[in-house]
Structures are given as C-alpha cells and as structure tokens.
Amino acid sequence: MITECTEADFATLREQLGRIPRGVVGIAARSTSGEPLVVATAPRLEDGTPFPTTFYLTHPAFVAECSRLEAAGIMAEWTAELTTDDELAASYRKAHEEYLATRSAIGSRAGIAEVKEIDDFSAGGMPTRVKCLHALVGHALAAGPGVNPIGDRAISLMTDVPTPAVTRAEADEDPDGTTTSANEASE
C-alpha cells in the first residue's frame, strides 16, 4: 500500500538520498519501525521529465546491499538464467506487466496523463534482463513477496537490512489496485 508521505517521512527521504526527493507520491514500503524503504514516484516529474522508476529504493542499507550484489556480478548470472528457465522468465514478465499497470494507476491517481515515452518500459531491465537490482528490490519491497522473483531473490541474499512491514501473505488487494494489510486496515 502506498501511504502518505508525511513531513517527517520527507525529511527522512532527504537524509537517505542526500538530496530533495522529486515526484513523491507516497511511501511504497516501510520497515517494521515505520521508516521509509521505498518511495513511490510519479511517472512524470514536476519539470515534465518522464520518470520510469515508480518504486525508488531509498533506505541506505538496502541500497548498499544492492550495490554489493551488483558488484559480485550476480546480474549477468540471473540474466542468463532468464534465457534457460521458462518459469522464471514467465514470472519476471508478469512482474514487468504488474509494474506497468501499477505505474499507470499511480499516475492516474496523481492526475498525470499517460506518459507515452515510458509506456512499455518498466524498470531494472524487466522483462528480459537484470539491469538494476535497486529498481527490482524497490519493486519487490513495494509489491511484497511473490511478485518480482529477481527482486525477491536479491532480498533473500541481503544481510543487515530492516524487516519490511507488510508481506504478500498479509496483504489484500483493494479494488483500486492499492494494497493494505490487516494491521493497516485496522489502524
């Protein structure tokens, strides 16, 4: 579920990123302590620039772990696996399609018309290669386990990262495409 970005969240994002966040629509994933992990961004920034990375990973521990895994060369291995594992490739393509649909819904809710420049482009190399673990992990954290197989894999290899607040097993899909957990619905 994308939750409101409070003033405190915005200050945390600024500290995490080392700059003023752009195009913030809300917080797409939080830790169990409530700290932002992933920010949801508009598909078009205020200056008119198309912005395909809907789920932008902000938490320094996750960012560092993604960089560590990328430096280890895991992306080339996983890209090669996509060409030989039909089940993985199908699941990854489904993640790509989910990403596009969610970005479109976020844009609509934010009052942003279709952004044709990025219409078929999701993030992280989806659907045929693994290009950026930061984007794939951001998507996996925002969507919950079981949606992005490569993002899930990367998270499973990480150490010393905060625990995400909502897992796919706890989540229920609302008719408007947002996700709420039983805990969030009762608050």
TrEMBL record:
Pfam families: DUF501. Residues 177-187 have a biased composition (Polar residues). InterPro entries: DUF501 (IPR007511). Residues 164-187 are annotated as: Disordered. This is DUF501 domain-containing protein. It comes from Brevibacterium celere. The lineage of its organism: Bacteria, Bacillati, Actinomycetota, Actinomycetes, Micrococcales.
